[in-house]
Design brief:
Order of helices and strands of chain A: EEHEEEHHHH
CATH topology of the largest domain in chain A: Ubiquitin-like (UB roll)
CATH class of the largest domain in chain A: Alpha Beta
Number of helices of chain A: 5
Strand content of chain B: 15-25%
Helix content of chain A: 25-40%
Number of domains of chain B: 3
Oligomer: heterodimer
Shape of chain A: globular
Helix content of chain B: 25-40%
Largest interface: A-B, 60 and 65 residues
Strand order of the largest sheet of chain A: 2-1-5-3-4
Strand content of chain A: 5-15%
CATH class of the largest domain in chain B: Alpha Beta
Number of helices of chain B: 21
CATH superfamily of the largest domain in chain A: Beta-grasp domain
Shape of chain B: globular
Structural class of chain B: alpha+beta
CATH topology of the largest domain in chain B: Aldehyde Oxidoreductase, domain 4
Distance between the termini of chain A: 35 Å
Distance between the termini of chain B: 55 Å
Structural class of chain A: alpha+beta
Number of strands of chain A: 5
Largest sheet of chain A: 5 strands, mixed
Radius of gyration of chain B: 27 Å
CATH architecture of the largest domain in chain B: 2-Layer Sandwich
């Protein structure tokens, strides 16, 4: 039995040695917004944040992140009625198609904008090329990141990533 | 139930009974009593099978299509709401249940009629004989870029217009005023002269008793208020919060997890496996020998997979065990030679005498092309949750073919389809893959061995190695040019013909043509892959026409335009592509520009690619200008998104997509050895829509066939190297090679 802190909540879980965080999050915590795509850190669909850093949960043993702050797509919005600035931009650009990869895309984008609030095209490509979208919505993802970036510049809150 | 294919459907004799069909017209309204129990709740009025009205004046469109990101729920509801003059803010949708009453006869009509206009006997009214045939085929497919073209045009619009007419009639009778004086607007009916207004909901119970009009008047394009606008898609908000539920996300109380390994060589059987649970495994509940596969059920996917990976499984040998990709291509070529020599080729199209004219031609161009097997690689790996209990079966999955799912489960369990309930979920990518039912059958086979629900999840490796594949193929093309470079004769010998039937047609004015094909045996299973045969023939035809333009010493754009002289829609698309791409303007060194055009699924799409080939031979596609004659784009932003998507999907295949066979089995296993286009490799895409006044064309597929030839034609323009084998990555394009070629 290990204790995980996900989206600020404590989850006691059963994770055999080596069991990736992805399957614990999905099957035991029932947070299914984090997706399985490849299992070998190639596609980015399973991206979550550990202490603010984006990681691939499909190859990260659950036991290695005990005691750390894990954020999944479900924990991104500040509350039920308010979306995260990046999620808002995603809707405004009508970004997703099938939507399956989008949790991972958004988690990577939030990590990028936290580090670099006004990334260039090249910096966006660099940061986002680990996330595959088979519906090919790369142009819209890029536009949404730029829109979120602009919203960040215009935001008056002290921590604009938490609107 | 036989597996559905469009060809099987057409071959089923439905068309042959056309003479019978005409006389027996049944309105959809006549079926409402049967279906209201399936879709309507207390107080709701079902106006016809596609439309219900709630007491709070909500209009619900009942959509017989699966959502896989194409926005079909929103777009089809728009078509219904516009014809009905409903208040868009009060419109909702529900996905039609997987029930034979919702078998999609309109879609079936569309497939039978093909991309041509429906034959008269299939038009406008719905007839009982035809419907029965469609029901028996379990036809509720999302595919063929058909939702708007068929279900929308001939179903949703008519359903909306008929409901409006019935509401107007009810108001006329209630208020004793002429129907001509009434106006429908924003989900109300009003009579200005007497200053009376009633909501749709208030009139619905009376309206439902009105005889449905046989031919409700449909709006003309200038009357549209909702169609032609880009309403925000309903499926998007849940997709940014993680709340959207895909098949993989289904949670059923008491559910366990399973994963599976099929025999690596297609068609092989399990020879031996020890199904006792290994002592060192954790959380494993059961190991099953399914004859051609082994499955492990466990408390979680990870526990199931790690155990499965270490199980010693022996498979029977088959005649294909030693087969390589090279062997397969050799077999294809031998079959082509043999069929040609023995006169056994199947004819696709013939006009004039191509062989005689070829021998007389001033210039003869010959080329052989080769295309690889392609996998689908949907983002969401295959999965299905099944629960067999109390003589019933419940299925949770994301399917393009929910009625097929129902039939497949019933077949495995030898029960009636009515005893199977399908809970269709969002699809994490379809591209044709989710019209199959192989994983459904496996899930049911597993679930029937236990008394709890089981979610079967395929690993990505299983998904890669047990897909149904776009065919690998070889094509031989010949053309004869006259003295001015015009093609006077054309012959094409290819292998495998699936559908759409017209895919191998040449869209250009060439008087003498002979197009033929062989169908050699293949142990690699075939499946619908985005744009199906157009994905093959778009590349072949548009590459070869580029070769002819070069041989004729003519500009590739001008050559196509001249040869499209009988096709003004083609010419308009070409002209706009010319203008928007700045065709002919200077490019940096090592850059090239290529054009390709094709008509598929009712839309005509041209793409111009700007490509850089570096000194090291790396290909970078910088920009794609896409021009589409959409007929009429019902949801322009959705149409544009589909063009973008089809381009990236086709580009991934063109650049690096290749499944190869080694020792009879698929050699690739995951994204590391089947690379796909990523953001840093994605071109800037500019899409321009032409609303030509024709009926709406398809959106999901027509941009895919032309991207490969647009790119390879651009590579030729940049380097002088003609790519005749895909993927492009197979060809060495380093500058040192180029100079010696």
């Amino acid at each position: 039995m290990i204790n995980l802190t996900i989206n600020g909540k404590n989850y006691p879980v059963e994770a055999p040695p080596g069991m990736p965080l992805l399957w614990v999050i999905r099957e035991q915590c029932e947070l299914t917004g984090t997706k399985y795509g490849c299992g070998i850190a190639q596609c980015g669909a399973c991206t979550v944040h550990v202490d603010g850093q984006p990681i691939r949960s499909c190859i990260t043993p659950a036991s290695s992140v005990e005691g750390k702050n894990i954020t999944t797509i479900e924990g991104l919005a500040p509350n039920e009625n308010t979306l995260h600035i990046v999620q808002r931009a995603w809707i405004d650009e009508q970004t997703p198609q099938c939507g399956y990869c989008q949790s991972g895309q958004i988690m990577s984008a939030v990590a990028l904008l936290t580090e670099n609030p006004s990334p260039s095209d090249e910096e966006i490509e660099q940061a986002m090329s680990g996330n595959i979208c088979r519906c090919g919505m790369y142009g819209r993802i890029k536009s949404a990141i730029k829109r979120a970036s602009e919203a960040l510049q215009n935001s008056s809150t002290t921590n604009p990533m938490i609107p | 139930m036989k597996k559905w294919t469009r060809r099987a459907f057409i071959g089923a004799g439905v068309l042959a009974s056309g003479a019978v069909i005409i006389g027996i017209a049944i309105r959809p309204g006549n079926r409402t009593s049967k279906v209201s129990g399936l879709v309507a709740e207390e107080g709701e009025t079902l106006m016809n099978i596609w439309l219900k009205i709630s007491p709070d004046n909500t209009v619900t469109a009942i959509i017989p299509h699966a959502e896989m990101g194409q926005g079909v729920h929103t777009t089809l509801a728009m078509m219904l709401a516009d014809e009905m003059d409903a208040d868009w803010s009060k419109v909702k949708f529900m996905e039609a249940p997987a029930d034979k009453e919702y078998a999609n006869y309109i879609l079936a009509k569309g497939f039978i009629a093909g991309d041509a206009n429906s034959p008269k006997f299939l038009e406008e009214t719905i007839d009982g004989v035809f419907l029965t045939a469609v029901k028996s085929m379990n036809f509720q497919i999302t595919g063929g870029s058909a939702s708007v073209r068929f279900t929308g045009q001939q179903g949703m619009r008519i359903a909306g217009a008929a409901a409006k007419a019935m509401l107007l009639q009810a108001a006329s009778e209630t208020w004793k005023v002429p129907v001509e004086e009434l106006k429908a607007q924003n989900s109300t009916i009003s009579h200005a002269a007497s200053n009376r207004t009633a909501t749709f909901a208030e009139l619905a119970p009376a309206a439902a008793k009105v005889k449905a009009p046989k031919h409700p008047r449909l709006k003309t394009q200038d009357e549209f208020t909702i169609m032609g606008t880009s309403k925000p898609r309903w499926d998007i908000p849940a997709k940014v919060t993680g709340a959207a539920k895909f098949g993989l996300d289904v949670m059923v109380p008491g559910m366990k997890y399973a994963t599976i390994k099929s025999a690596p060589v297609f068609g092989a059987k399990v020879k031996s496996v020890d199904t006792s649970i290994p002592s060192n495994s954790s959380g494993v509940l059961k190991i099953l020998n399914l004859e051609n596969a082994v499955a492990v059920i466990a408390e979680g996917f990870w526990q199931a997979k790690t155990t499965l990976d270490t199980l010693p499984i022996e498979f029977e040998s088959t005649e294909n065990d030693g087969k390589s990709q090279e062997d397969i291509f050799n077999e294809y070529r031998q079959a082509m030679d043999k069929d040609l020599a023995e006169g056994n080729l199947d004819k696709h199209f013939k006009s004039g005498d191509a062989m005689a004219e070829l021998s007389k031609a001033e210039t003869l161009i010959e080329a052989e092309y080769q295309l690889p097997f392609l996998a689908h690689f949907t983002m969401e790996p295959m999965n299905c949750t099944a629960w067999v209990h109390d003589g019933q079966c419940e299925i949770w999955c994301g399917s393009q073919n929910p009625l097929g799912v129902k039939a497949a489960a019933a077949e495995v369990l030898d029960i009636k389809p009515d005893q199977v309930t399908v809970h269709n979920q969002l699809l994490g990518g379809g591209f044709g893959r989710r019209s199959e039912t192989d994983v459904i059958k496996q899930a049911v086979l597993i679930a029937k061995e236990v008394d709890y629900p089981v979610k079967l999840i395929w690993s990505r490796e299983e998904d890669t190695q047990h897909d149904v594949y776009r065919e690998a193929m070889v094509s031989r093309m010949k053309a004869g040019l006259d003295q001015s470079g015009n093609p006077i004769a054309y012959s094409h010998q290819f292998i495998f013909k699936h559908h759409p039937a017209e895919a191998a047609d040449v869209p250009y004015a060439i008087p003498n043509q002979l197009i033929q094909y062989s169908s050699p045996a293949s142990h690699v299973p075939w499946g619908n892959w985005r744009s199906v045969d157009h994905s093959v023939h778009g590349f072949l035809t548009e590459s070869f026409i580029d070769e002819l333009a070069f041989a004729a010493n003519q500009d590739p754009f001008t050559y196509r335009k001249t040869l499209s002289k009988n096709n003004p829609r083609f010419q308009k698309v070409l002209d706009l592509a010319y203008e928007k791409s700045n065709w002919g303007s200077a490019l940096p060194p090592n850059w090239g520009r290529g054009i390709a055009i094709a008509q598929s699924f009712g839309s005509i799409v041209a793409e111009v690619a700007e490509v850089e080939v570096t000194m090291e031979g790396k290909v970078k596609v910088h920009r794609v200008v896409c021009v589409a004659d959409a007929g009429f784009a019902v949801h322009p932003d959705g149409f544009i998104a589909q063009m973008e998507s089809g381009i990236i999907y086709g580009l991934a295949a063109a650049m690096t997509g290749e499944i190869t066979i080694k020792n009879g089995a698929v050699a690739q296993s995951n994204f590391h050895d089947y690379p796909v286009t990523r953001m840093n490799e994605a071109p800037k895409i500019e899409t321009h829509i032409i609303n030509s006044g024709n009926p709406p064309g398809g959106a999901g597929e027509p941009s895919t066939p032309v991207i490969a030839p647009a790119v390879t034609n651009a590579i030729f323009n940049a380097t002088g190297i003609r790519i005749r084998q895909l993927p492009i990555a197979k060809t060495d394009l380093r500058v040192s090679i180029r100079q010696t070629t």
